[in-house]
Amino acid sequence: MAKRREDLLASLGRFSEPALCILISLADSPKHGYAMTLDIEAVSGQKLGPGTLYGAIARLEARKWIEPLPPEDRRRPYRLTTAGEKVLRHRLQSLQALARVGRARLAEA
Amino acid sequence: MIAQRLLPLFPRAWRERYGEEFLATVGHDSLRMQQVIDIVSGAIDAWFSTDVRHATASSPAEPSGGGPMTLKYLTACDRNQARYTKRDGLIGSGVMLVATSIFVVVGIAARRAGWSVTGDVLMSLAFPGSLTLSMPFWLMKGQPWRAQMVIVGGTLSLLIAIGYLATLI
Lengths: 109, 169
Hints:
The complex is a heterodimer.
Chain A: H1 2-10, H2 16-25, H3 33-44, H4 50-62, E1 66-68, E2 78-80, H5 82-108
Antiparallel strand pairs in A: 1-2
Helix pairs in contact in A: 1-5, 2-3, 2-4
Chain B: H1 2-6, H2 12-26, H3 33-48, H4 50-57, H5 69-78, H6 86-112, H7 116-124, H8 126-134, H9 145-168
Helix pairs in contact in B: 2-4, 6-7, 6-8, 7-9, 8-9
């Protein structure tokens, strides 16, 4: 099942990395697009372009990994769903395992 | 504001669903060329991505799970699948082959008739022109016919213009 969830995230193609950043950004609280952009830039140093941001949001929404909340002014916040949280957890575990192997191999070299 | 001018590039359903928040998000920054390119590629993606169409097909007033039954059925059936079938792909390939042959044959005939520039342009269109002409049969299947006309017509016009310019160099 874990493998299946990772594959689902990878199935987003070039949007998989921006989608991961969005899921991480929404992990602590709901955010609208602009707040996500700022948060992702602060956390990863990567500034998502508006086209990429909304391409990833649409894909996450279509898969019901995030869901929109009622709009505040012109902005619509999004929150992580239970399914999205599971996908994020599995992806982070996988990345953690990968980082552990990488660090161990660097230490050996 | 550049973002407002770029917004019509997106499909109407996308604009209705994300337009307001998109402008609110972009509105804080002056757009750099990189962002403009990102928005244009986002617009192209919005036209062709099944996921984006699914997301924009649901009403913004319904946060989750509120779409009509047909949409739910289509979403369940169509997720992670290409919008075109193997048959569409074969038809598209057939159109490409026929169009390529026509471009080449007519191009050679034009050259022999002394219209070397027209012949060169037609020959240069053999691949990109036939690919563009085949798109409505597979890649753009299901898109509104107006969008298909604009994209195919616009691309062909651009290719012809580039072909003529190339002959002047």
